[in-house]
Amino acid sequence: MPDVFVNYRTGDEESAATMIARELIRRFGNERIFFASNSIEPGRRYPVELVRAVGECQALLAVIGPRWAEVRGADGRPALEAEQDWTRREIQTALERGVLVIPVLVGKVTRIDRAVLPDDLLELADCQYRRFDHRNAQSDLTALGDALARLLPELGAADRDARAVRERAEAKSREKSARDTGHTRMRTRDVEQRVRGGIGNLNGDLSGTFVNEPQGPVNTGPGHQYNAPHFEGDNTGVQFTAGDNSGTVHQRFERERRHSDDGR
């Protein structure tokens, strides 16, 4: 079942209708867009196919150019006045069904003249339209496709352009995640190398100063900490021996005992 029926008049902006149909087919898929010259298989009865398609579609685009109301039929009268005119019948059927009907005004057409419309098409003049200009073809086609994708959810789900945008965004997200993971691994390796090397200053989710197998005096924070013997004054002070830094050994040498030892 086609979602969108592209209606146009032979002899009036057929090239614009073809461009519109091709772009919509590219974006939404061939089976969702009905365009008579493309959608009716050879040998099929076109009256039956036209009636079926317009009776099943969810939206009809009425492509209207400068000669849309002027093209004449075999009897010399404007084709639009004939009740059996296919362009007229397709629009009439869509209006009666109450589906979305979007006039697409091509080129210099600025409005739909109610005076040229038969009574059964007067409602067409009240429908909000879109514009198509060959000079702005790509932007106008994109805007028309975006509107259809928004108004017809099932059609929007088949939007190849929207899917491509999502895939590009997901690919960028995966690349960013991979870069972030790589940076984290590099930082982890750097930390490990610093730990193996001895002393380092950690940042990020680690903090402070770390010490690995100190061989001399080391200060890791506020206050005094010593990792080698230290004597003050005339040996009457305190000796600090750090070892594994888990405690401090205090030894005091009294003058009297030294004097006694010197006397021997």
SS class: alpha/beta
What fraction strand? 5-15%
Helix amount: 40-55%
**Shape estimate:** elongated
Q: Unreliable runs, pLDDT <50, ≥5 residues? A: 226-232, 235-242, 245-254
Secondary-structure element series: EHEHHEHEEHHHEEH
Strand runs, count: 7
Number of helices: 8
Distance between the termini: 120 Å
The largest sheet has its strands arranged as: 2-1-3-4-5
Largest sheet: 5 strands, parallel
Q: State mean pLDDT (0 to 100 scale).
A: 81
Report the radius of gyration as a whole number of Å.
Answer: 43 Å
Structural key phrases:
alpha/beta, elongated, 264 residues, two-stranded antiparallel sheet, single chain
Give an overview in words.
The chain is α/β, with parallel strands linked by helices. It has eight helices and seven strands; from the N terminus they run E-H-E-H-H-E-H-E-E-H-H-H-E-E-H. It has helices at residues 14-28, 36-39, 46-56, 86-97, 137-151, 153-157, 160-197, 255-263, and strands at 4-7, 33-34, 59-64, 100-106, 130-132, 200-202, 208-210. It has a five-stranded parallel beta sheet, with helices on both faces. It starts with a strand and ends with a helix. 22% of the residues are buried. Residues 226-232, 235-242 and 245-254 have low confidence and may be disordered.
